[in-house]
């Protein structure tokens, strides 16, 4: 049972990450040394039982991995949270990967106000597609959903 879950997740993540890798490869080839920092920035791979909020679309840029969500708790105010690079995480998330077994609800305002959407267990969302575009640079709080 454990093995089957991991295979499913890897399969999903491969679909999510593959286009991003292609885009980065093209960017590096096209613009030279300036893109090296971008390549480093997107190097973070979301580990098992984490929820990874990325600063840019396609799971790139800096990352914010809240310890709270690993333990099924809440992040009530992104305004007091930062990406690894020091930038404020409020209204700044453009893609997210959830490798936990829980679903999470996203909100536009702190303290779980103005519900915007739900991300499934072992799933990811890129806020540039039609389904999720409205969430780009909008998340201000998150909590587990039943
Ligand atoms: Ca917001």
TrEMBL record:
<dbReference type="Pfam" id="PF03995">
    <property type="entry name" value="Inhibitor_I36"/>
</dbReference>
<protein>
    <recommendedName>
        <fullName>Peptidase inhibitor family I36 protein</fullName>
    </recommendedName>
</protein>
<keyword id="KW-0732">Signal</keyword>
<feature type="signal peptide">
    <location>
        <begin position="1"/>
        <end position="36"/>
    </location>
</feature>
């Amino acid at each position: 049972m454990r093995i089957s879950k991991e295979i499913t997740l890897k399969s999903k993540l491969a679909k999510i990450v593959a286009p991003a890798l292609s885009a980065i490869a093209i960017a590096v080839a096209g613009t030279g040394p300036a893109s090296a920092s971008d390549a480093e920035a997107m190097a973070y791979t979301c580990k098992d039982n984490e929820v990874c909020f990325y600063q840019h679309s396609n799971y790139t840029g800096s990352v914010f991995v809240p310890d709270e969500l690993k333990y099924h708790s809440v992040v009530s105010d992104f305004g007091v949270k930062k990406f690894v690079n020091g930038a404020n995480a409020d209204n700044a998330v453009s893609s997210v990967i959830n490798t936990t077994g829980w679903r999470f609800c996203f909100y536009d305002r702190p303290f779980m106000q103005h519900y915007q959407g739900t991300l499934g267990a072992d799933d990811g969302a890129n806020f540039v597609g039609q389904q999720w575009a409205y969430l780009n640079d909008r998340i201000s709080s998150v909590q587990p959903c039943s």
